[in-house]
Amino acid sequence: METGYSWDTGLLRDLNEDSVLCTSFDLRTHLGTISAGLFAVADGMGGHSAGEIASDLATRTLHAECISGLLAQSPAPPLSILAAAFKKANRKVLDSATDGELKGMGTTLTAALVVGGELYVAHIGDSRCYVINRRETIQVTKDHSVVQQLVDAGTITPEQARNHPRKNEITRVLGYSRTVVPDLLHVKLYAGDSILLCSDGLCGVLPPPEISETVIGAPNPNQACIDLTAQANLAGGPDNISIVIVKPDNLPSWQAMITAQTSIRRI
Questions:
Q1: Is 0.70 surpassed by the pTM of this model?
Q2: CATH: 3.60.40.10, 3.40.50.1370, 3.30.2350.10, 3.60.15.10. Which one for 2-266?
């Protein structure tokens, strides 16, 4: 699979408190060797350098726990592995934020586990996961934020949410509570799909159509990350900009999926 990532401070911040994870590997199963990858974006928050430490702790713990779970003799289902990794990452961040400058630190975490043609996502906070292709752009995750609650209630529109004065208020993060419940999602992938993970330094600045157009128009994921980072900075670069883009290969065609669904309906 093709991958690319970008990790940029932006124009208005002195420190980059985001962390990214981008790793690909092969899984040996009873069906043969399957291409897989684990990807994540974490947006830390807290006092001086605390957000940077929180996001780094979260992504490192996620990586260690997921790889360990996947390589177990009898591995659990992928979403269960992700849920357990988020629980461990939350405990790590919480236990580290006991005193001094680290007290009160936390982080978002959006993770994507790709196994063959399957996408498994775990999510807490307002970083995002999209699946982008020439047919449509799917926002897989939903922000855990005050403005998303206002959008859901019909009080404001998604366009108004982009510049709302409470847009930085997050309702669910790692490191603030002993109990953490990530959203867990499963998406079937098809030929032409690209997976994009990003912090709100990108999705809070550029609208989805502009993001999608850049991803589709770029020659490869790495160039798409470079182009999107430049566009976010041209739009003001108010926050750290972290992006991971994954383009899996050997996926079934969209037409094959339609044929399969049609066959099922006819039975």
A1: yes
A2: 3.60.40.10
